[in-house]
């Protein structure tokens, strides 16, 4: 009986050991399978992003062709032209099965960046080396029109200018930024993106979203405003006597721009009047050199956004100056 009981115990122990081994093998197999699944998904995701990026570059070439063809017809840039019209998502099909169902979509939108206030204009200097007051005053009016404090204009100028002397009365240089957590230094360099406004202490995301549709950061301190494409608030920021002139009748502005430039230069100058015109005569135009292409690509579950700053150079050639992925 004792021998029989011992044999049963041995068989029980062996069974438990076998169950443990099977469990461990199952867990190991599951882990290897799951790791392989994750690796495949990761690889597919990387390939999809690389594909989407190439589609984005293709959209750049297409946008350059559209802009070149349109702008060959004349120097004026307005919102009635083909480049400014909204587009529908374009289906992307597989190269192996071009007649099959689409594997994704591509959609692009071109915007005239000279219809916005260029933040880097704040760093413009007059021939005598002093700071140009016009862009500062214009940005102050623009801030007020979107219900923000005008003090941010001087703070933004101090972020851009090369010195470390705070502008009066609202300036901010290294002494302010080094007291932040974590501490950092003033840029003292032109902005590469309007999102740099959010580095100013206390400015924050909410204020940025209010001003974002009306500002840009172009690689020049002398960008002119294209009055044919500028939003109403940007037009009104050009002179102190224009408050409510265009924003009070947005439908009139939108309707007038369906057929060409509205207001045209002659009409706008007359509206500004002789008293204010000398201050802005050199900062308004009806042409543009800087455009932003926003390309959105969807491939399966992968979504990719490419922002391309395009420059129309001499001879009408369109060149990408700056690319950002997924963020402005």
Report on this model:
Helix content is 40%, strand content 15%. By secondary structure, the protein is an alpha/beta fold. The chain folds into two domains: 2-113 and 290-325, Pantoate--beta-alanine Ligase, Chain: A,domain 2 (2-Layer Sandwich); 116-218, Ribonucleotide Reductase Protein R1, domain 1 (Orthogonal Bundle). The strands form three sheets. The chain has a five-stranded antiparallel sheet, covered by helices on one side. The protein has a two-stranded parallel sheet with strand order 3-4. Strand 8 (302-312) and strand 9 form a beta hairpin. Helix 2 crosses helix 3 (151-160). The longest helix is centred in the first third of the chain and has 70 residues, at 2-71.
Helix-residue proportion: 25-40%
Query: Tell me about the biggest sheet?
Result: 5 strands, antiparallel
What number of structural domains do the residues give? 2
Kindly state the number of beta strands.
Answer: 9
| Biggest sheet: strand arrangement | 1-2-7-8-9
Give me the Rg, rounded. 29 Å
Provide the CATH topology of the largest domain: Pantoate--beta-alanine Ligase, Chain: A,domain 2
CATH architecture call of the largest domain: 2-Layer Sandwich
- CATH class (first level) name of the largest domain: Alpha Beta
The string of secondary-structure elements, in order, is HEEEHHHHEEHHHHEEEE
> Distance N terminus to C terminus?
83 Å
Strand content: 5-15%
Total helices: the number is 9
| Average predicted local confidence, pLDDT | 90
């Amino acid at each position: 009986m004792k021998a029989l009981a011992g044999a049963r115990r041995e068989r029980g122990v062996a069974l438990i050991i076998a169950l443990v081994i099977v469990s461990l093998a199952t867990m190991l197999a599951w882990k290897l399978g799951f790791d392989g699944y994750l690796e495949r998904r990761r690889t597919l995701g990387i390939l999809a992003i690389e594909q989407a990026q190439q589609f984005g570059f293709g959209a750049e070439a297409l946008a350059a062709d559209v802009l070149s063809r349109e702008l060959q017809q004349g120097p004026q840039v307005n919102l009635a032209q083909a480049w400014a019209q909204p587009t529908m998502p374009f289906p992307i099909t597989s190269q192996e099965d071009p007649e099959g169902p689409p594997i994704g979509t591509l959609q692009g939108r071109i915007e005239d960046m000279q219809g916005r206030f260029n933040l880097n204009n704040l760093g413009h200097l007059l021939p005598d080396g002093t700071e140009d007051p016009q862009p500062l005053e214009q940005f102050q009016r623009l801030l007020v029109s979107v219900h923000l404090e005008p003090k941010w204009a001087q703070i933004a100028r101090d972020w851009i200018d090369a010195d470390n002397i705070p502008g009066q009365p609202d300036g901010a240089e290294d002494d302010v930024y080094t007291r932040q957590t974590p501490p950092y230094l003033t840029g003292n360099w032109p902005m590469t993106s309007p999102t740099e406004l959010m580095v100013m202490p206390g400015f924050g995301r909410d204020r940025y979203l209010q001003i974002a549709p009306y500002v840009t950061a172009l690689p020049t301190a002398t960008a002119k405003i294209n009055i044919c494409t500028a939003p109403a608030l940007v037009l009104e920021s050009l002179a102190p006597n224009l408050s409510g002139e265009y924003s009070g009748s947005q439908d009139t502005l939108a309707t007038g721009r369906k057929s060409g430039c509205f207001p045209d230069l002659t009409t706008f100058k007359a509206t500004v009047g002789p008293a204010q015109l000398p201050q802005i005569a050199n900062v308004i135009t009806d042409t543009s050199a800087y455009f932003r292409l926003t390309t959105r690509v969807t491939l399966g579950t992968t979504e990719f956004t490419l922002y391309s700053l395009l420059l129309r150079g001499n001879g009408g050639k369109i060149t990408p100056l700056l690319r950002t992925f997924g963020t402005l």
